[in-house]
Please model this.
Amino acid sequence: MFNKVLIANRGEIALRVIRACRELGLKTVAVYSEADRDALHVRFADEDVCIGPPPPGESYLDFKRIISAAEVTNAGAIHPGYGFLAENADFAEVCESCGIVFIGPRPDQIRQMGDKVAAKDLMKKAGVPVIPGSDGVVATFGDAIDVADRVGYPVILKAVAGGGGKGMRICRDEAELERSFHIASTEAANAFSNPDLYLEKVVVNPHHIEIQILGDSHGNFYHFGERDCSIQRRHQKLIEETPSPFINEEIRRQMGQAAIRGARMVNYLGVGTIEFLVDENRNFYFMEMNTRIQVEHPITEEAYEVDLVKDQIRVALGEKIEYHQENIKPRWASIECRVNAEDVTNNFRPAPGKIEAIHTPGGPGVRIDKAVYAGYFIPPYYDSMIAKLIVKARTRREAITKMSHCLDEFIVEGIPTTIPFHKEIFSHPDFIAGNYNTSFLETTLKVAEAATPAEKGKETEMSIKTDIEKEQGSDISEENKVTIEDKE
Ligand code: MV4
Model:
């Protein structure tokens, strides 16, 4: 079917895929931009092709350059990793038409899940609980009022083409809904070239719990439990863990079965993640589906003793994946910290530069997925995650202890990292007690909205402010911001 895989990505995920390919006896091709000549994925792949200048649009996002690289190297498949082209239905389609296997779901599945209203509709049909709200797009302000009256305030306006927290607006009453409706629609049109909105009741203090699923081309579907991703700052996950301290075996089974019903409904192919919001009473509601391998997949691999990337590639090879759902159980407690090259004291500003020295922790139950090394220059063009520190232990308490020691042992010189921030979280009694939800960083550590007077009106380079946001100053809640960042 194919025996050579081109990896259309960089960084740690490119290495992760190269390793999986090697173990499966597959040859690998790295592609790289001029900023990545010294990157490890280029060194470790069997072949490599420079595909253009540093800006992603001219390299890692450029269909033509990537397809050409696959054709000249005779690669039969492309693995997109996460970010970049991973959830681009058009790219998956182009691969198909060029006779190249896209390692991921089918183009129509990517497209369907990218349309948040279509995805929600589909899940509803599959019997998956969805957040109460509009039946599809809310066409007019009048319709929005009717739905809001039915489900009750506060409500949230979301962009149909949005996702990941981009272009959402919370409305506490009708007046606010009236003010927000046209603004949100205009923002959505500008940011996503689609003005359509849908409306939902706000789930208060939700937990972000996602279920890992896998489907093969023989009609088998499996779930690998949950990941608790509630520790986020500005919709960027910082810590993920499994099992979730909030989820018991019974809820896990229910959410897993719901996720499988959703996957089966679209005959889903490959690895995917179904994101749920879980309220304080442990009611769970479908939020979005991610049709890619995710940054945080290693905690599931460690806890469940599986290799999701190898399974993903095997599915693309047409192989049958043989698990027994009743044997897929969390055998370990696993936690991941995303180590980013960011200045925590300066609003988490990305801080690219040269890594002068690095020492990573080790020992039993410690896994580090990274692609940086001493002397490596972190280029400013891509995302700031430089390593993932993943631990596993028999209990959550032991995993937390291990993580704390690993963070102490993790030394990076030359650039600031998020490690000091992680240390704070791992010593916080509420985190240790498992007593947290998506509001933790904002309300407990008070960092989500770290804008100081000097910070007012200023944003990081990668985010854009719409005119209305500038008008409102930076007092608006995070939920009301639209960014163009498209990293995980
Ligand atoms: C919500 C919500 C509350 N109620 N929807 C944020 C990311 C995007 N995928 C959806 N998000 C939310 N949708 C309803 N009806 C709260 C959030 C939310 C959130 C969700 C998961 C993790 C962190 C979050 C932080 C702020 C808001």
Observations:
- Residues 131, 156, 163-165, 200-203, 206, 208, 232, 235, 277, 287-288, 438, 479 surround MV4 (CB under 6 Å).
- The radius of gyration is 22 Å.
